[in-house]
Amino acid sequence: QVQLVESGGGSVQAGGSLRLSCVASGFTFSIYDMRWYRQAPGKERELVASISSNGGIISYEDSVKGRFTISRDNAKNTVWLQMNSLKPEDTGTYYCKAVRAFRTYWGQGTQVTVSS
């Protein structure tokens, strides 16, 4: 059974940090690109960060560049999103997604709330 389980969300004040984790099981994690998305209330889900299967290609949405860091450990079937200098506009539900060609898997999401 394929699973992506996110954790690490919570409530923090602006300027704080959180580290999100996404643990994969039920598929060959090491051959999938991984992505973090977020969805704020009333808004569409947006791509925040991406990392290729071997970790060699990384990209970020402009508003999080310099503040967020995506990383992965294929031996642990885990991808992380380190979020520093958090802002209220970072509030939302954060999802991890595994992508390979036309096959995708989503996690259930973890809530991040940043207060001013």
Describe this structure in words.
With 116 residues, the chain is mostly beta strands. It has no helices and 11 strands. The strands form 2 sheets. Strands 2, 4, 5, 6, 9, 10 and 11 form a 7-stranded mixed β-sheet that branches. The chain has a 4-stranded antiparallel β-sheet with strand order 1-3-8-7, with no helix packed on it.
Residues in helix, %: under 10%
Helical segment tally?
0
Output the structural class: mainly beta
**Number of DSSP E strands:** 11
Write the element-wise H/E pattern from the N-terminal end onward: EEEEEEEEEEE
Q: Mean pLDDT across all residues, rounded?
A: 97
Q: How large a portion of the residues is in β-strands, by DSSP E?
A: over 45%
Low-confidence parts lasting 5 or more residues at pLDDT below 50? none
Rg over alpha carbons: 13 Å
Tertiary shape? globular
The rounded distance between the terminal residues' Cα atoms is: 40 Å
Largest sheet: 7 strands, mixed
Using brief descriptors, characterize the structure shown:
mainly beta, four-stranded antiparallel beta sheet, 0% helix
